Amino acid sequence: MLHALMKPLLLAHQAERIQIVAILTSVQEHAMPQWHEAGISFIQCPHGIQASVVMDHLKALVKPDVLLLASWGEILTAHTLEALAPIKVWNVHPSLLPAHRGVNPYIACVLAGEVQSGLTLHQVVPCVDEGKILAQHVVPIEAGMSGLDLQNLTLYELPLLVESVLADIEEKGLEAYHHSAREQEVWGASHHRLEQITQVILNPEAPLEVLERQVLAVRGWMPCLLPLGRGWYVDVVAFHTRAEKGSFTFQWTHPTSGNTCFVTGQALYYKGVKYPLAMGLFSLFARFLRFFKAF
């Protein structure tokens, strides 16, 4: 999210609407040339904001009014937030809080069958994504949209949130804007710990619409494995009502409903080992599996 956020902020910096004094990153990231050209410091923080050297730099050298976090991943303690004062600490979260707090709300939104998601700017507190809300921007979720599609659309819409926030700050002033934040509703709050998931094992007896939603949600992030029997799994790309030309597709009968559909896969797994698919191999395997199950 760093680069998506920096585009509108850099424009505001160049227009002298704001002054960006430093960019901090906790992961291996390369500074963009335009950041240096704009006179913005770039600070690597492999041990997080709470490391003493970073805290000293923020307080003594940089002295920002606002510390804006995005996809940071570090939970700031009450002690750290007190030590940072009077710096205001805000966070951009890619969902409509209080719904879908935590890591990767894109997956969570699609899994939940939401019709809209969005972006929330909120004050940072020691509890994950529970701070007072400063601003929100709604992003619609269209039918058939995957978690990755939602991520791309959300990042595309991010400049609209930034512009709205800057306009409000210019109108009200920073202090008044900060104190205009509202408490999050208790109703509708949810928190997902998807960072602990590395793959999804589909339950073949679940309704087909549930299976389709699970595949849409995680496709591109992690394997979505459908059991084929005898220890074999296929990494599912999509379910179809008819065979897709040029894809690794086989016919599959839902064990509970008896309905038939077509499954497109991109790899086979056996005892945790991944076998990339070739068209001929996949067709041969599908025939073999049907033949083997007949006995």
Keywords:
four-stranded mixed β-sheet, alpha/beta, Rossmann fold, Methionyl-tRNA Fmet Formyltransferase, Chain A, domain 2, 2 domains, 295 residues
Series of H and E elements: HEHEHEHEEHEEHHEEHEEEEEH
Helix content, binned percent: 25-40%
What is the CATH topology classification name of the largest domain?
A: Rossmann fold
Q: What is the gyration radius calculated from CA atoms? A: 23 Å
Task: Note the total helix count.
Answer: 9
CATH class placement of the largest domain: Alpha Beta
Number of domains: 2
Low-pLDDT windows of residues: none
Taking the sheet with the most strands, its summary is: 6 strands, mixed
The end-to-end distance, rounded to whole angstroms, is: 52 Å
Average pLDDT rating: 87
Give a count of the beta strands, DSSP E runs of length 2 or more: 14
Tell me the β content: 25-35%
Overall structural class, as computed from helix and strand content, comes to: alpha/beta
- CATH architectural label of the largest domain: 3-Layer(aba) Sandwich
Morphology call: elongated
